[in-house]
Structure to design on (907 residues):
C-alpha cells in the first residue's frame, strides 16, 4: 500500500465519494431529528426539541411487546443458525460429502430467492400445517433466511484454516469434538461473529417473510413500524427508529473494536 | 514404549496404489527414516501410523497391540508436522500442555511435565510466548516438546526440518539424534533428504512409487544398494545410456559407446539397452596413462566444492563421466585436457532399465 | 479422518430444515399457481388453469407493473454503479487512514433497519417533508414537488438502500486488481485516466458484474421500500404479490407472479455466472 503519491485519487473523485457517503447517512439523520421534534412534520431547523416521543414509545405495550418478539426471534434464529450452519459448513470443509458444490448452492438459495416469495410460500405451508402464527414457525422461518449468512462466513473462516492443527490435536489425544471445540472453533470465532451479526440483523430487520406469518396478537418491531407508517407519520415511529439506530451503532462499534469487523464484509 | 511393525501395509485411492505391501519391524528405541522422492508413499505410511489415513490393507502394531482400527487420539503417539502446526491461539506452555491435559494431568504434575519437555528443547523460559512471536527454529522445538510431553510410545516426524535453513537444519539433526538417544524412544522419520536420513538413522527404508526398495543400515544402503533405484537415488550417480555387450556368469561387460565397462552383476541379457549407473565416488581418477583394467579419458571440466573435487572426463567418442576425489588428495589439481585413467569398481556398476520404465 | 457418515450427520439437520421449511413450501406454490380463484368464494376445488400465468403477459396492468419493476432494476443498478465506483475507488486506493472509517460509514446504514431507512426517505420526500420544505423556504419552488408514490421516490429510495452492497463489492473487485499492473501501465506512458480505462476498469469488471447482478436482483425483489415509498397504488411485482395474497386473497395469481419473479431473479443470476466463468477463462 505504498506508492501513494503515484495513485492518489484526485479532488473530483474524493468530492464525489464524500458526497455519496453523506447521501448514505441522510435518512438516518432525518429520522433522528424527527424523533426530537415537537412537530409531526419536519423543518430545518426543527421547530422545537422534546424527548416526549421516546417516553411514549418506551411505555407503549404494543411497542414493547414487538421489541421483545423481535429480540426473541433474532436471538433464537441466530443461535439455531449458528449451530446448524457451523455443523454444515464444517462437514463441507472436510470434503467428505459428494456434490458439495451443489449442496453449498442449496444452502445459499434462500439468499437468491425473493424474500416475498419465501414469505408467501411459508404462509401457504403454515396455513396447511397449522403453524401459522406459531412462535416455532416464525423461528424456523427466520432460521431459513439467516442461516446462509452463517454458512457463508463459516466457510470463509474455515478456508483459511490449516487442517494440520486439528490433526495435531487429534494425535495429542483429543477426540473429534474436542479438537473442534478447543482448536478449530476459537480460530474461526472472529469470522463467525461477523456471520452471527449479519444473521441477527437480518432477522431483526425482516419484513417480507415475517409479515405473512405473524398473528394479530404478536408482531415484530419492523412490521409494526411498517404498518404504522401506512397509517401516517408519527414521530414516535421516529423515536423507536432512533433507538434502533443507537443500538445498531453501538453494536457496530463494538464489533469493530473487538473483532475488526470491517475485514469480514 | 514399543516397537513398530507393519504387516502387508497398503493404501489405494481408487485405482491408484500409493503404498504397496510394506512389511517391516522397527525395534524399540530404534531411529528409522523413510526416504524417497515426493509421491513415493512415505508420508502416507506415516499418516497411516498416526491414524490420520485409513489403510486399505494390512495391519499396524505398536508393541504387540494392533492399532489399525484405533482412532488417532487413542494410539499414544507423538507427531511433529512439517508446518509445526502449533496452536496459534495458545501460549507455548498451553501448546505443550495440550496432550497432558487430554490425559487428565493437572496442577503441579502438569507444570512439572511441561517444564521438563520445554527444558529438553532448551526453551524453558518461553512458556508465556505465543507461536507467532517465535522464530522457525524455536517453533520447531516447541512442536517437538509438545509431541514428547505426553511420553508417547512412538515418535513420528513428517519432514520436520525442510522449512529450516541449512545451518539450522544441521544443528537440529544433531540435537534430535541426541534427544532420541537419551529418551530411547522408537522413532519414524520421513524425509526426502538422503544426507539427513543416512546421518541420523539406525536403519533407512528407501521407497519409490509405493514400494519399499530396501530397508537396511545406512552403510548397506550406500555401499550395497539392493535395487537400481536405490543405486541411482543415493549418492551422486552417473546415469548413462548403453547396452549389455556380453554376459559372463552373473555379470559381464557393458558397452558405453565404444567403451567397455565390466560389471559384477547384470540382470539383462546381452544386447539389451540399459541405463548404466555408476557412483561418482566409485570412479577413481588417476592422471597419466591408464593401467590395464582402467578406462582412458581426458579431463574436460573441473569443479571444486569444498571437501571434494569433481571432474568431467571424456572417454572416447563424446561419452562423458563424472569422477570425484578428495580435494586434498593427489589428484586434486588436474588440468583441463590432462590424460587420466579411470578405475571403475565392477561391483559399483549397475545395469538398470532405461529411464522412464518402472524401477 | 472424518467418515462420510459423520459428515452426513453434521449436515443433515440443516438440510432437513431447509428442505422442509424452504424447498417444499416453495414447490408447493406451483400447484397453487395453476388454481382458480373465485372472488368471494375462494379456491375452486379441482379446477386448473393457465390463466394466472397468461395474464402476466396479456393483462395491461400486470405488464405495466413488470416493466416498472424491471425499469427500476436497471436504473437503480446503473446509478448505484456510477455513484459507488468513485467511493469504492477511494476506499480501495485512497489514504490508508480513511479506509476503516469510510467502510464503517458505508456499513452503518446497511445494518440499519430497512423500515427505518425507508421511513427516513418518507420524511425527506413527502409533500411536507424536509426537501420540499427546504426548497420552498429557499424560494426555489412554489408548490411541493411530488417525490413520493411515483418512480422518482422509489428510484431514490432503492438507490440508497442498495448502494452499500455495490460499494462493498466494488471495493473487493478493485482491491483484486494488482497494483503492479497499474504501475507497469504508468511507466509505459499511460496517463492516470488511461490507466484507469485500460487497466483498472476492465480488471474490476467481474466485480462490477457481480455487484450489478446483486443489486438488480435485490431491487426487483424489494417489498418494503416500494410499499412505503410507493404507497398502496404504485405497485411493483413484490408489492403486487403481497396485495394478491393479503388483500385480494387470490393466492393462485399471487403464486404465479411469485414464480415469474423468481424465474427472473434466477435467470439473471445464472446468465451472469455463465458470463463470469467465460471471463474468468479470459482474465
Amino acid at each position: 500500500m505504498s506508492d501513494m503519491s503515484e495513485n492518489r485519487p484526485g479532488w473530483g473523485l474524493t468530492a464525489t465519494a464524500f458526497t455519496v457517503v453523506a447521501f448514505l447517512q441522510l435518512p438516518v439523520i432525518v429520522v433522528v431529528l424527527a424523533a426530537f421534534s415537537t412537530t409531526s412534520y419536519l423543518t430545518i431547523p426543527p421547530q422545537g426539541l422534546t424527548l416526549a416521543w421516546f417516553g411514549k414509545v418506551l411505555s407503549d405495550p404494543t411497542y414493547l411487546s414487538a421489541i421483545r418478539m423481535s429480540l426473541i426471534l433474532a436471538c433464537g434464529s441466530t443461535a439455531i443458525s449458528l449451530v446448524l450452519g457451523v455443523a454444515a459448513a464444517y462437514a463441507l470443509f472436510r470434503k467428505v460429502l459428494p456434490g458439495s458444490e451443489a449442496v453449498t448452492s442449496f444452502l445459499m438459495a434462500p439468499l437468491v430467492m425473493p424474500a416475498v416469495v419465501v414469505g408467501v410460500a411459508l404462509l401457504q405451508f403454515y396455513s396447511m400445517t397449522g403453524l401459522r402464527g406459531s412462535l416455532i414457525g416464525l423461528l424456523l422461518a427466520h432460521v431459513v433466511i439467516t442461516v446462509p449468512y452463517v454458512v457463508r462466513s463459516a466457510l470463509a473462516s474455515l478456508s483459511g484454516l490449516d487442517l494440520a492443527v486439528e490433526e495435531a490435536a487429534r494425535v495429542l489425544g483429543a477426540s473429534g469434538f474436542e479438537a473442534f471445540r478447543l482448536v478449530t472453533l476459537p480460530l474461526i470465532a472472529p469470522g463467525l461473529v461477523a456471520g452471527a451479526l449479519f444473521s441477527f440483523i437480518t432477522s431483526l430487520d425482516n419484513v417480507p417473510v415475517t409479515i405473512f406469518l405473524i398473528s394479530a396478537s404478536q408482531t415484530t418491531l419492523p412490521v409494526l413500524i411498517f404498518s404504522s407508517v401506512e397509517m401516517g407519520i408519527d414521530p414516535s415511529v421516529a423515536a423507536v427508529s432512533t433507538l434502533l439506530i443507537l443500538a445498531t451503532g453501538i453494536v457496530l462499534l463494538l464489533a469493530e473494536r473487538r473483532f475488526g469487523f470491517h475485514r469480514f464484509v | 514404549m514399543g516397537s513398530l511393525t507393519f504387516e502387508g501395509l497398503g493404501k489405494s485411492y481408487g485405482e491408484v496404489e500409493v503404498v504397496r505391501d510394506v512389511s517391516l519391524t522397527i525395534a524399540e528405541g530404534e531411529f528409522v527414516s523413510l526416504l524417497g522422492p515426493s509421491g513415493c508413499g512415505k508420508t502416507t505410511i506415516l499418516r497411516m501410523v498416526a491414524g490420520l489415513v485409513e489403510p486399505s490393507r494390512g495391519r499396524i502394531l505398536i508393541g504387540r497391540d494392533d492399532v489399525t482400527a484405533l482412532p488417532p487420539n487413542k494410539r499414544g503417539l507423538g507427531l511433529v508436522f512439517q508446518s509445526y502446526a502449533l496452536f496459534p491461539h495458545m501460549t507455548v506452555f498451553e501448546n505443550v500442555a495440550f496432550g497432558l491435559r487430554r490425559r487428565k494431568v493437572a496442577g503441579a504434575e502438569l507444570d512439572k511435565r511441561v517444564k521438563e519437555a520445554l527444558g529438553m528443547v532448551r526453551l524453558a523460559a518461553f512458556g508465556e510466548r505465543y507461536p507467532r512471536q517465535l522464530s522457525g527454529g524455536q517453533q520447531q522445538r516447541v512442536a517437538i516438546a509438545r509431541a514428547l510431553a505426553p511420553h508417547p510410545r512412538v515418535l513420528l516426524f513428517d519432514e520436520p526440518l525442510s522449512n529450516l535453513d541449512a545451518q539450522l537444519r544441521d544443528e537440529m539433526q544433531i540435537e534430535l539424534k541426541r534427544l532420541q538417544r537419551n529418551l530411547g524412544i522408537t522413532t519414524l522419520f520421513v524425509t526426502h533428504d538422503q544426507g539427513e536420513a543416512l546421518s541420523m538413522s539406525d536403519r533407512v527404508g528407501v521407497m519409490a512409487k509405493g514400494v519399499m526398495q530396501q530397508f537396511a543400515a545406512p552403510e548397506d544402503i550406500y555401499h550395497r544398494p539392493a535395487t537400481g533405484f536405490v543405486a541411482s537415488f543415493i549418492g551422486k550417480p552417473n546415469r548413462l545410456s548403453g547396452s549389455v555387450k556380453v554376459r559372463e556368469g552373473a555379470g559381464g561387460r557393458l558397452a558405453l559407446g565404444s567403451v567397455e565397462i565390466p560389471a559384477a552383476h547384470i540382470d539383462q541379457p546381452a544386447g539389451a539397452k540399459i541405463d548404466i549407473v555408476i557412483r561418482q565416488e566409485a570412479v577413481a581418477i588417476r592422471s597419466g596413462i591408464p593401467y590395464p583394467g582402467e578406462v582412458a579419458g581426458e579431463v574436460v571440466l573441473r569443479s571444486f566444492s569444498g571437501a571434494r573435487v569433481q571432474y568431467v572426463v571424456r572417454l572416447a567418442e563424446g561419452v562423458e563421466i563424472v569422477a570425484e576425489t578428495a580435494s586434498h588428495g593427489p589428484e586434486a589439481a588436474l588440468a583441463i585436457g590432462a590424460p587420466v585413467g579411470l578405475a571403475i569398481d565392477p561391483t559399483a556398476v549397475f545395469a538398470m532399465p532405461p529411464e522412464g520404465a518402472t524401477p | 479422518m472424518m467418515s462420510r457418515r459423520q459428515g452426513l450427520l453434521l449436515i443433515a439437520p440443516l438440510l432437513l430444515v431447509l428442505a422442509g421449511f424452504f424447498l417444499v413450501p416453495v414447490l408447493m406454490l406451483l400447484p397453487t399457481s395453476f388454481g382458480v380463484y373465485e372472488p368471494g368464494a375462494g379456491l375452486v376445488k379441482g379446477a386448473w388453469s393457465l390463466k394466472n400465468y397468461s395474464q402476466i403477459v396479456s393483462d395491461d396492468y400486470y405488464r405495466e407493473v413488470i416493466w416498472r419493476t424491471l425499469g427500476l432494476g436497471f436504473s437503480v443498478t446503473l446509478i448505484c454503479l456510477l455513484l459507488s465506483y468513485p467511493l469504492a475507488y477511494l476506499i480501495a486506493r485512497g489514504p490508508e487512514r480513511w479506509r476503516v472509517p469510510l467502510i464503517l460509514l458505508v456499513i452503518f446504514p446497511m445494518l440499519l433497519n430497512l423500515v427505518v431507512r425507508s421511513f427516513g426517505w418518507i420524511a425527506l420526500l413527502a409533500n411536507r417533508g424536509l426537501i420540499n420544505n427546504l426548497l420552498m423556504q429557499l424560494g426555489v419552488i412554489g408548490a411541493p414537488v411530488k417525490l413520493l408514490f411515483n418512480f422518482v421516490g422509489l428510484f431514490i429510495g432503492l438507490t440508497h438502500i442498495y448502494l452499500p452492497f455495490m460499494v462493498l463489492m466494488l471495493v473487493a473487485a478493485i482491491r483484486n486488481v494488482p497494483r503492479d499492473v497499474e504501475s507497469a501501465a504508468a511507466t509505459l506512458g499511460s496517463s492516470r485516466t488511461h490507466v484507469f480505462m485500460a487497466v483498472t476498469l476492465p480488471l474490476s469488471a467481474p466485480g462490477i458484474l457481480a455487484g450489478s447482478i446483486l443489486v438488480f436482483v435485490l431491487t426487483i425483489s424489494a417489498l418494503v421500500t416500494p410499499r412505503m415509498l410507493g404507497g398502496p397504488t404504485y405497485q411493483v411485482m413484490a408489492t403486487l404479490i403481497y396485495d394478491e395474497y393479503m388483500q385480494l386473497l387470490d393466492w393462485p395469481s399471487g403464486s404465479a407472479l411469485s414464480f415469474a419473479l423468481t424465474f427472473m431473479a434466477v435467470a439473471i443470476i445464472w446468465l451472469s455466472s455463465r458470463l463470469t466463468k467465460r471471463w474468468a477463462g479470459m482474465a
User: Anything to note?
Assistant: The radius of gyration of chain A is 23 Å. The CA atoms of residues 157 and 188 of chain A lie 5 Å apart.
